[in-house]
Amino acid sequence: MKRFIAAALLLLAAVIGGYWAVFYRGFYLHFGERPSVSVPFRAEGTELLYWDGQNYVPFILRGVDMSAGRPGHYATACDAGEEDYLRWFGAVKEMGANAVRVTNVMNDDFYNALYTYNTTHTAPLYLLQGTNLENDVGDGAKDAYDREFLGALLKDGKALVDIIHGRRDMPAVGIRSGGVYRRDVSRWVVGFLVGTEWHSDTISYTDHSTIRSGAYQGTYFRTTEDATPFEAAMARVMDEITAYETDKYSAQRPVGFLCDPSCDFLEYEEVYARQLEKHARTDPEHVTALPSMKAGRFAAYRLYDFCDTFVERLSARQRQAIAPLLEGLSTDQPYGGYLELMGRYHTMPILAAGYGFSSGRGAAVRYMASLSEEEQGRRLEMVGRTLEACGWDGGFISTWQDEWERRSWNTAFAGVPAEHYLWHDLQTANQNYGLMAFAPGEEAVCMIDGDPSEWTPADLLSEQNGLRLSARYDAEGLYLLLEGVNREEPVYVPFDLSPEVGSRSSSNASLAFERDADVIFCLDGTDKSRLMVQERWDPLRERFLYETQGNDPFLLFPEKDSKTFVTVRMAVQNPLLVDTLTPESRPLQRLGVWETGHLIHGNGNYESEDYNSLADFCFGEGCVELRLPWLLLNVGSPASMMVHRDYYQHYGVEFRRIREIWMGAARANADGEISMKAFPVKGWKSVKYRERLKESYYIMQAYWKGGD
Fold it and tell me: Exposed site from 388, 443, 454, 564, fewest CB < 10 Å?
């Protein structure tokens, strides 16, 4: 009996050990004759081809970047399930796309959904599979040959091969998802893309190393004589991914590594390179495929507004080197002719690995207004058409869905870091790149269309002097209904949010308040309505006064009860390049300022023909409906109702919880103090939402499917 138990335990240990070795470590053995290498996709010249069962056929990739991001969850939590992905795949396909791109290992639900979708539909969705690094790896502190950098790329690359072939188990660690991967989706995987975003410092640090070489000779890839050490590292990753898939699965597919305008092959004049921080260079042409690599390789670029005048900024040596490519280059195209230049330069297929525009309310760049959903779609269509006209093999719109967890440099300081995924910040550009929006709530709290029928008597907060003020809120903002107004007569709505700052009067419009007001909404027709904030509670002054004006905000600052109210503004990038870097030219390059508190009149009902996604308020018959995004009110997290504290008492942005917002309403010629009533507010720990396809989705659908 003891021998039987011992033998059983040994057998169990062997089974567990074998399972661990095969599915967790990728162990494999070959038995019998190896089959010929399968190449479902290949790169030939500058074309991407797929095998249709008889011949290789050229095709263009039209796709979207997809993540696991959903409201109320970090994308890295991979909370999206198989049903979510199936629903999204259906909408993506209905838009006319034929592919999706993921930048990292997804949870098993994603690959299960892709398998289910493609085996139940005649026209499949293709997949471009990417691999990424942890945020704290590759930030310039180490070179690309460090174990945590190169070692991670090599390990993940082999894991991705097993995942798409359905033979891998992975625990969820860090930003990487996990699961039991048993669905073979390899027949639909167009290729592997190494990298999602490189830090230029990492590339430069690697290439300036005295112990690294640009030479690499592998089984499937090699570098040219001009290659850099970083490019050699990319060649090694591409080579080992291909070797692993070829040896284990007798299959190959195209492989490439990521580039973008900040680290492409172009060289700029020193004065401009310093301003653009363009000190790294990579060139996919320096990594060539050997005859044993039947599938070939491709180039891939992230696209964004880097320098639309780049042709004028190139060094004399660079212009001479590519002079034939610059002849007749159309610089009035998107990105200043960059797409056409790259299409002319590369001898391999080239893909846009992410291009997009935000439909958020907040601005990001000086002199570039925020885009409505319609304008977002027109820009995407223009880039898509230009890509294909310039010989690119397609691209991926970034992103499919809005991602509430994302931050932007000019708003991140104003929000509670641990709670940003619980609410939708319309002011943060990076949250609003999707073709699909997540609207808060199971149904709309308010449609900004001037129709007061959705409001109830329970919403009424105050009534005085013929003005009725009602209020509601959701995860996007505070909604108001003002009745008894017209477009000709100004009306003021003071708010008291912070217990630590505010004034009983305003010198701007000679107003007096029952309580210390810190924000004022000024309703003044369709063009001049705006939001004002007490100057001491102006976050732009505290955070960006030095960057915008060169002054220290803490040397001299406003009094707590200052009667001065200023327009609500935000810092934006200043793209100006100067010809000489001198003390006199530095003020010209300070950050710009955007009056984000200037409110836009329009119809915010997305079911209306005249829908304007940027609409803040809309007049109706004797009324006006208004939405104020939370960050305009210095609410750092509505999920816990945390507002900014006194910047100059706490030396920066700190937060405190509130339970009510005091507000009132009065006409411009009202006598006495404006009375204010308390509007109770409370937060939430989980958020409900509904999915909505943006106008940009339908514009791309019309382009890709050839309809109206």
Answer: 443
